[in-house]
Amino acid sequence: MSNTLFDKVWDAHVVRKIEGGPDVFFIDRHLIHEVTSPVAFLGLKTRGIQVMEPKRTFATADHNTPTINQHLPVEDPLSANQLRALEENSKEHGILHWGLGHENNGIVHVVGPENGITLPGATIVCGDSHTSTHGAFGAIAFGIGTSEVEMVLSTQCIMQPKPKKMRINIVGKLNKAVTPKDVALYIISQLSTSGATGYFVEYAGDVFEEMSMEGRMTVCNLSIEMGARGGMIAPDEKTFDYIKGRKFTPKGADWDTAMEYWKTLKTDADATFDKEYTFNASDIEPMITYGTNPGMGMGISNQIPQSDTVKDGKATYEKSLSYMGYEQGESMIGKTIDFVFVGSCTNGRIEDFRSFASIVKGRKKADNVTAWLVPGSHKVEAQIKEEGILDILTDAGFALREPGCSACLAMNDDKVPAGKYAVSTSNRNFEGRQGPGSRTLLASPLVAAAAAVTGKVTDPRELMA
Amino acid sequence: MAYDKFNILKTSAYPLSIENVDTDQIIPARFLKATERKGFGDNLFRDWRYNADDSPKVDFPLNDPKYSGKILVGGRNFGSGSSREHAAWAVYDFGFRCVISSFFADIFRGNCLNIGVLPVQVSEEFLQEIFGAIEANPDTEIKVDLQNQTVTLLSSGNSESFEINSYKKENMLNGFDDIDYLQNIKGEIQEFVKTRPF
Description:
The structure holds two protein chains of two kinds. By secondary structure, chain A is an alpha/beta fold. Chain A contains 16 helices and 18 strands. Chain A folds into two domains: 185 residues, Aconitase, domain 3 (2-Layer Sandwich), CATH 3.30.499; 173 residues, 2-Layer Sandwich (Aconitase, domain 3). The interface between A and B is large, with 80 and 59 residues.
């Protein structure tokens, strides 16, 4: 029988099928952070049950952590309380915990792959919708709610109906200055924020085969923004090279056994999908969003669509543009901006900082721009320094902050003020996402760099040799 | 943890005729800092419901005294974005037991089912009829019958059936939750663990 990559991994994790109901679905590796886990631990306590498989859960602090002065006590008492709860709960249940300042600390979806927690063919969950990131390695990875965090802690399983299957192919070669972020924003603009709801996506075709692991993570990360529970890419030599030798990757004979299995993880030639899309790489240009959901994106040289051409209702669309302070038919090029944020689980990896540095090198930060450059982890931070990227950034008038989710979601001190515009490499441009009243333009690190040195929305191709 | 049993709900409803309502609107991230499940209803739709100085926005439906009830009716693609279960907790804590929309985001739908809030998906036409009926008369009642999987607009008598898997339906009718189920098959799960290579 012919199976998809998704079928192979899913079916290998079904403990029990319930007639007319969900599957009892086994989770290999569980990531937790300070925000969505405390109530789950409280639930365990109330029920008087222990964590069943503590070695399969990994804790890191990221969401409400400050990104400066991490060596000092956290000032916000509520944040400090959640961070303490994560540490104490981890300790009580024998769970590995990477708190603030730990060399392995960072954003949960950055440190998972870095430390070999993320593996092909594994099932990975976390109380965070961007868990889809880990699908880049051929894992089934998705976000869960706190009730499900409690299920995984107590029984290493959740109850999930099997999603439908979608394949998205992108064929051909990407244009200049078109990054994995642009590919993802393009797909979401085509499918809308609900276009893949109910589906699990496999990304296939030339573009993803040629893409780096960092790039694949960016694309899979954004799967949730078109409604998909997750997205995945078949593991290949790049995947195996990336994971080999990492902290929690199997070693020796275990590695050889695992490799034999991992090499079978691809969609069979005659397997079928419930839905399939194919796009041409050449149609994609650097992208930017103009509205209040990630589906409201366009090529940077285009004009904001008229309300009668969009899929959403007119009232919802006009409300969105009004929030942003933009008009239908306008160009985004030349729009003044106030903040630039480079970081997050979407674009906080080494490649993203290389990309940003390639444009700011030899230029200066615009005076009207406040820039927050936030590495996804201490490992990324160290690499930025090792590769000399920090010097380029410093010469151009930028400073590097300490790792964390930072301005992606306005849970910590890094908030964009009301009415201000931020070009952000993160994942959501929802109303108030980066602070009450803030206005977010989602884009790639290249577009963010072009904005950071010019103080306005600028086509990065104009600044590239 | 057992929650309230759900059988028949007959009540008026609050209308929120906006599409793509994301969970950052339902509850902004800055209100996710509690370590207990308490008080989230106060911050339900915080930035749509209150001005920056914490005064209520009078035209927002949740602040409008003419509306009442235990059902929230939302536009298409309700609950997209973040997986925060706090969004479902806020909906519950405000007093809602059911959300009606023409389309739900996956994770939000699952979170609702896990805490005893029933997500009811209806056709876009029926959703618009419900919005119209509430606008015409805010006291309009809606009857949601879980056993029979029907939702009825009592002013017109028009009705639609809705989908829910039989396992979750039994859970909601009886107030059971998934952990009860999983705890009962723990032996089977422990056997399964032994087969996992990593």
